[in-house]
Structures are given as C-alpha cells and as structure tokens.
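Q: What structure does this chain adopt?
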Amino acid sequence: MMSAANYKLEIRLPEGVLFSLPLGGPVSRCLAFLTDICIISAVSTAFEHLVAPLKSFQEDFGAGILIVFYLAAWLLYGILCEYCWNGQTIGKWLLGLRVVDAAGLELQFYQVAIRNLIRSLDLLPLFGLVGGITMLCNRRLQRLGDLAAGTVVVRNRRPTTPNFNTPVKSRYNSLLQHQVLCARLRQRVPAQAAAVAFEALMRRDQLEDRARVLVFDELSAYFRAQVEFPLEDVDPLSSEQYVRNVVEVLYSQVRTRAPRMIPATN
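A:
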C-alpha cells in the first residue's frame, strides 16, 4: 500500500541548498476537498435563500442567477483562496496542506487558475477517478490540474525548536541584550523563514564558498530589513554570524529578566 510519508518534493536552489517537502497524500487531499465542498454548499444554500423572493417573481431570472453563482463559487473559491492565502483553501488549511510551485518558485495566479479549471476533468467519470489514478501514477502525487499548472500539494511542517547544543548557538550573542527588539523580531519573522535560516546554518558545510556567501548575505539582508538593531552591535558581524545570532533569538526565550523594583522605605 502506498504511503504518502515516503514521497517528498526535493528542490535544489541555485546556491546548491537542497530542501525537501513532504507531499500531501490522497486521503488528506480528499478530506480537504470534501471540507471545501461543504463550505461551498453552505454558502450556496445561504445565497439561494437570499434570492428566493426574486425567484418567486421572476423564476427564470432567479434560476439563472443561481446557476451563475454556483459556477462562480465552484471556480473562484479555490482560485482566490489558493492565490491570496499562501496556496491554501479552508479545507487545505484544516488538513495542513498547501499548493506550491513544483520548481520551488513563487506560486503564480495562472497556475492556481489552471489547476482549478482542470479540476472538473479530474473528477471524471465519478468520485475523482481520473485525478486519483493520475496521482497514483506519478511520484509527486499530482493530478491532471497539477501536471498542467506545474504545481504540487505538500504538507505543512511545523518548525521544531532546534537543539542549541548544535554549532548554531553563538558563544556571545550581542542581539540578546536588546529585549524589545528581539521580541519585535520574533513577531515579524514567520516560522518558515526561521526554519530556512536554521537549515541553512546546519548545512553550511555542504555549500561551496561562493554559494555560502550568497545564501547568508540574502538571509542577513532579509532579517536586517525586519528589525534594525544598533549599528555598533551588528556592523562587526559577518552575514553568517548575524544570521546565527538571529536564529538563536528566534528560537530561544529571553533569559534575562529586568530586576525587580523594591519600594523605598522611610
């Protein structure tokens, strides 16, 4: 029996870094789709009640409005959700799935539109038989819509807290003394970006020298744009050291506490 846990999407960046993402299996994708169907049906039913008075006066016109709404809801729900919500519909979000570009690039609108427009073919002849067979016949578990759009459905991985007994931890982190700025950094940096930086540090020795410099220069520039720390604390740091300090800030709790104020006594 096929296990989706054994299937992964591997992406090698131009800098030489290899990332792998677990693929979404047929069962979880089916459950996500059924959830979305329930949501679309509920919205359609509510809309039908709203236009019921109009249908009683102009039956043909009211029926036409309902048909147009059903088609629009069927197509636009998936397209708008996946494009505006990081490749996710409500069903995919609940099941921990999302749509990504098969080459690791930014997901484009035309890709989302194509995979949703071809969904009708995947559902033929009954219960998604065509799409299911297509998924089982390729290593990336892509249905026809995914193959045409160049997309893949992956499972979201919750970033785990790294073990700071690893070489990631710095001997001295000049950023940790700025507690307010550290808290702001944790708030602004998404978990995915923190996970990418941590993985880059763990794989630093696998990169060529030039690629290593490029990777950490880009990561450093990204983190510097989120929060500005005092120049005297960051200027002496290399890009790699700055990323190392940022990762420690993102994954560690503030260890220093403000001293307790003791009220003066007369």
